Each structure stands twice: as C-alpha cells, then as structure tokens.
Amino acid sequence: MDLSEIKAAARKAAFGRRKGAFEAVGPGQSAHLSEVLAGYRGVPLAGYMPIRTEISPLPAMAEAAAHGPVGVPVIQGNAMPLEFSRWEPDAPLRDGPFGARVPLEDIYFEPEILIVPLVAFDAQGGRLGYGGGFYDRTLERLRARRATLAIGFAFDAQEAEELPLEATDQPLDMIVTDTRIIELN
C-alpha cells in the first residue's frame, strides 16, 4: 500500500468516528475553544464554516468577533493557499467551494491564529485533513511571515493513535476537543 492509500484508509476510518460523535452530540461544544481564545482577545484569527459532520467553532468565533477581526477561509484555486475573508455573526454569506459558506463581500486579512478543521489528529499535533493540502500550504506561508498559532478543533473521537504524515504536513500547536485542551510544544 502506498502513502496515498494509507491516508485514504485513515480518512475513511476517521470520518466514521467523526460521524458517530456528531450523531451523539450534534455540532459539539465550543466552551473549551472560547476559553482558549479568551487569552488572545483582539488578535486576528480565522475559524471556519462547518460542513457536514465537523464540530462547530461558530459560537467561539462570534465571541471573538466582539474583540477583533475574525475570518473564514476562501479557497482561491487548486494547490493554492487559502485567503481569509472577514466574517461577522449574521453577516450575509454566499456558497463557496466544497459547500462551505463564505462572506458575500470579501474583505481579506491575514490571521495570526487559525482554528483548523480536521478529519483526524494525534497526540503529537499531527493532523489529517481532507487531502487538498490547503491548510498545509497556508500555514507554511503564514509561518514564514510571522508566528502563527494553529489550533486543531475536533471531537475527542477523531483522535488516532498514529497518522500517516508527510514532510509537507504542518503540525498543530494546540488541539481543542469537545472535552479537553491539548497543549503541544
């Protein structure tokens, strides 16, 4: 089995675990995410608009938006880094690629904190995404410019013992789940 097949199998198993968690608790709790973000009031950050069975960061993003800029990712094209458009609670949205909603009007900015969606994570800060490499390219670009905090947000059930990772996979700095905060160094 080559690495792409191993990753596909890991994704399939992780999607099953995530679906089970979503069915058990709904879009999840963001209390721990709010707690973490409270320590960074006013720092530009980007979250995401949850799709399918992703845990929802929206309540924590709404709280953070009262203190500073909050954005969501806008896909620019295949194999390109993400750009982040300013998001406000209740602002008008339009359909973006892959079913994620994006602001009706794009006002781009560079976040210093990214709340990163994921399919699976491990205790060392490894992350398995959807396979497009968007967040890996984006984190690499942002980290080349300044310190950028990558916070993985997931259900506990998405944790894996070990993930098939590549040299281009960007690590998470912290993982916040529906039940805990995992700080990494």
UniProtKB/TrEMBL annotation:
Instruction: Look up the record and name the cofactor or cofactors this protein needs.
Output: Mg(2+)
> What Pfam families does the record tag this protein with?
5-FTHF_cyc-lig
Q: Which GO terms describe its molecular function?
A: 5-formyltetrahydrofolate cyclo-ligase activity; ATP binding; metal ion binding
What EC number is given for this enzyme?
Answer: 6.3.3.2
An annotated GO BP: tetrahydrofolate interconversion
Residues in a coiled coil are none
Gene3D superfamilies in alphabetical order? NagB/RpiA/CoA transferase-like
Query: What's the superkingdom here?
Result: Bacteria
EC category name: ligase
Keyword Nucleotide-binding among UniProt keywords:
yes
What the entry lists under NCBIfam families is as follows: MTHFS_bact
Family, according to the entry, reads as follows: Belongs to the 5-formyltetrahydrofolate cyclo-ligase family.
Q: Give the protein name, as stated in the record.
A: 5-formyltetrahydrofolate cyclo-ligase
